[in-house]
Description:
By secondary structure, this protein is mainly β.
Amino acid sequence: xxxENLTIFLMLLLNTVVLAQYSPPAGQFGTTAVHKDSxxxxxxxxxxVQFQRGAxxxxxxxxxxxxxxxxxxxxxxxxxxxxxxxxxxDSGSITLAFPFPxxxxxxxxxxxxxxxxxxxxxxxxxxxxxxxxxxFVRFPSVSLIPVITQTGPYENSNTELVHNLAGKFRQGxxxxxxxxDLIDSAGLNLDSILFVRIVDVIGSIDMSYTSFxxxxxxxxxxxxxxxxxxxxxxxxxxVINENNIYASYESEKYFSLSVFPNPSHGEIFIQTQTEFFDxxxxxxxxxxIWSQLDCSxxxxxxxxxxxxVYFIRVGNGDDFSLxxxxxx
Length: 328
């Protein structure tokens, strides 16, 4: 009996070693983890476009939702702690927008930060991106974590068995994503990713509720997490490769100009020191799409604009100022 148990143990150990083929934890040789203060991060998510809480335990219905944190805690620089986060709950989701589009540059293009307190207590999430806010494409993911037994609420997982799922690394370290993985995706402009969506993985191995990776494997992570901070806990999304080719055109050369909110859902407020001005709006390629003469500081309705990046030009004779805005 002892010999049989030893044989089974060695087989399981061998399988784990063979399967452990992806990035190790933060701080170890070969890791892909991105520190929140890395100089490679040039900007952070700045607006919440959509937020849907998930159940604290989906098997018990939708009566009790995760409730920890506020959606705005997913914005700006990741804090790298256990409290300044928003919990999604089972299958909850959040969609974020950015100051400039994310682009497919060299290496990884952005990183998603969770608040795990250790290298092996891991809660996962799918990551999706969109160029228009309508069509989202999910990164192909792999989970080789065994599904023989359910990972309990406070049990651990091996990060080396997981690829392209957010939440691989402890707090303060982001999971990187490379847009080149989506190179053949239809309806996606890899040089203009305006939105990132994070969708909680339901870690149950019960076929009635389980989440599947891109290869059809069930994903096993801590479950149930029947408390207010259940599910994936988002700390922030940092941009590594930013499409800011128009940034040099943003100018306050002649007079101060304030445009807010930015991003905007269609209404903006313009404040400037000049009493009257001409207003022009250009799309991301520099094409004039709308103009109005003899304007003054105040509110402007731009809900006729589709989601995307635009430039606001305020002119007064030979003087002008230019600001970039994002419509979401």
